[in-house]
Amino acid sequence: MTIRSADRITKELEHLVFTGELGDGERLDEIKLAKRFGVSRTPVREAIQKLATSGLVTQEPRRGAFVRQPGPVELMEMFEAMAELEASCGRLAAFRVSDDALVLLQTANDKCQAALDQGDPDLYYQENEHFHHLIYKASGNGFLEQEAQKLHRRLKPFRRVQLHLRGRMKQSMCEHREIVAALVEGDGDRVANTLRDHIAIQGEKFHHLMANLKKGT
Amino acid sequence: MTIRSADRITKELEHLVFTGELGDGERLDEIKLAKRFGVSRTPVREAIQKLATSGLVTQEPRRGAFVRQPGPVELMEMFEAMAELEASCGRLAAFRVSDDALVLLQTANDKCQAALDQGDPDLYYQENEHFHHLIYKASGNGFLEQEAQKLHRRLKPFRRVQLHLRGRMKQSMCEHREIVAALVEGDGDRVANTLRDHIAIQGEKFHHLMANLKKGT
DNA sequence: CATGTTATTCTTGTATACAAGAATATTGAC
DNA sequence: GTCAATATTCTTGTATACAAGAATAACATG
Predict the structure, then answer these.
(1) Are residues A100 and A184 both part of a single domain?
(2) Which of chain D's bases lie under 7 Å from a protein CB?
(3) On chain C, which bases lie within 7 A of the protein's CB atoms?
(4) What is the overall mean pLDDT for chain A?
(5) Which of A21, A97, A214, B46 is deepest in the core (most CB within 10 A)?
(6) CA of residue A161 relative to chain centroid, distance
(7) Do B55 and B94 belong together in one domain?
(8) Nearest to A203 by CA among A100, A121, A86, A36
(9) Does one domain contain both A91 and A198?
(10) What CATH number should be reported for the domain holding residue B62?
(11) Rounded to the nearest 10 degrees, how much is the dihedral formed by the CA atoms of A18, A21, A27, A31?
């Protein structure tokens, strides 16, 4: 055993939650999971503890841990918080971004454009993710960068879907261009506002999707 | 046993770290801690896991967990992130704050003033904390509120000390008044900027304190 | 005496055992 | 047949046992 199996299990469980194999409200049966991963309950429990502190599951004493997918309200709140976080990163980046980082941002954007031209939302998301990580990093604040990445990861499944909406990729691309332009100018407030709107729109689009989905059923 | 002892131990350990009884870099000896709290290693380990995910300790495989107090750089980054978070809360609060909440903010501020008049930094800090929590709540975003509180807790020991600097309490009080004034006006940007500066100053003051402390030794 | 090597001890990480509360099944009364 | 009370089973939470790597001590060698 070269690595803590508890850590491996943490990631496996996260994956199960993200892919939806462990659905909302489902109980995490320690024994079943232990058998599934071929370990004892101990590392499974440690993994569950970690998920609990990062908010993916809730623990009820003597009853176990349950998957806790955010509801519509919490999701909106998380998107709003993400918008604010990214705005903060962008504002700081406007003052601190290096020429090298700007070049990287441009190339990331070009790749987004390529994905858009190919009409490939998954590829677009991937390149788009890279673009945003670059902005977090350009904030020059490692702590903020980590926090932004954490929330980004948590929202990842929801940010993805809205890209499949008609015209959304193209619109997103325009917003990216404006963000970079404002960064080049060094206009902190404009970067912040553009980024904030960029994320807020994602939240709204996602909201629309959800509403339509419910209507459909 | 009415409550999970692991949860109790988590809080006890947090306390030990905050009070400094467990100093920076110190190893958390599972056996010693287990004896100290009168339990087995299992709940102690679970508690340590939690501290690790919240960032208070780092774990090295097969070597144990070590207290990880943030260094000067990380501390500055955390203060900056806190400033941004509070600014975000304030901006949202400017649009959403209720009249009731404004009254609460005013009374909280009056209590700060009273503490200032008594020249009691500890009391001031307490009332000041309440003031800030009210602003987090007034953001109308529960998720953001939680995140802000989390970081606030983490910075608590450092926010405290700078209040003992000559004239800092009075200055802080002025800033509070301006924040409320901007909230009443509903001027989001002004609230955000004032709050951001309010926290940023705390970071700077703390920095000065640290610098002087080092010079002294 | 310094240093490199081996042996021992210690600590973590995992598995298993046990205690106690929660959920479920069984039984009895109406 | 339905509902309440009790008995049983199941699951979590904690303690202990064991395995393996890390730190340390003992020792040999130059």
Answers:
(1) yes
(2) 11-17, 20-23
(3) 11-17, 20-23
(4) 93
(5) A97
(6) 12
(7) no
(8) A86
(9) yes
(10) 1.10.10.10
(11) -110
pLDDT tens string B93-129: 999 999 999 999 999 999 999 999 999 999 999 999 9
Nucleotide nearest B43, CA–C1', reads: D14
User: How close is the nearest chain A Cα to the Cα of B85, in Å?
Assistant: 8
ipTM of the complex: 0.90
Same domain (yes/no): A206, A149: yes
Please name which of B153, B131, B149, B130 lies closest in space to residue B141, comparing C-alpha atoms. Answer: B149
Model pLDDT for residues B18-60, shown as the tens digit of each residue: 889 999 999 999 999 999 999 999 999 999 999 999 999 999 9
The model's pTM is 0.92
Of B46, B74, B143, the CB nearest to A78: B143
Flag if A81 and B45 touch (Cβ within 8 Å): no
Selecting from B54, B77, B144 the residue whose C-beta is nearest the C-beta of A80 gives B144
- On whether both B101 and B200 belong to a single domain, the answer is yes
**Best residue in B3, B4, B46, B49 for a mutation probing chain A (most A CBs within 10 Å):** B49
